[in-house]
Amino acid sequence: MKVLTRFLLSAVAPQHFPPAGLPEIAFLGRSNVGKSSLINSLVGGKVAKTSNTPGRTQAINFFEIRWPGRPRPELVFADLPGYGYARVPRAVTRTWPQFIEPYLAERQTLLLCLCLVDANIPPQPSDTQMIAYLRQNNRPLLVVATKADRVGTRLQASLNALERAHGVEFVLPYSAKSGLGQDELWKRLRAATAAASASGESA
Ligand code: GDP
Predict the structure, then answer these.
(1) Residue 54: which of 78, 79, 33 has the closest Cα?
(2) Whose CA is nearest to atom 2 of ligand 1?
């Protein structure tokens, strides 16, 4: 689906986060999982930087999302730095939690965390750790299996393994290349946004 996207800002410290307003969707995953490709394919444009240098984007990039035909933006995407990649310099890895943890643990408007995992590799401990951390903080999350076009006939087996390892009932298969999962993911994002605005209005 084509939506209207506006880059807001790039934050490397909690004081840089935009004022809490619209509901936010956080995109999380190991470096190279296909996060930028997923975001770009979702919005139908090039907003997130795909890069051949894993771990380079050490900031949270915020984007406003507006549905076509609607007068105002209704959602914010927060693209978080990739984690768990061995080639990231140690100094960079160490600074990761200093501004990410306040975001994940305390951000009031964080509606849903999309945990991206690679459908082509076995479940990764760093992903399990991230998911456990989000659960401890009572964050709603959805696990999305990226690069699903590459897996072929083993896709269902791969999804089952990911579900078991990460303790979730459902993993959404996604391909930035073929478009698999795109409608389903938008459906879930719109449903989550609608539920949030309905509860906000009744509060
Ligand atoms: P990021 O570091 O998580 O932002 O990952 P990128 O989006 O830059 O993607 C990392 C690599 O995986 C790139 O070479 C992409 O072309 C490739 N990739 C990403 N998504 C897909 C996908 O859905 N299918 C296939 N076959 N390759 C993908």
Answers:
(1) 33
(2) 32
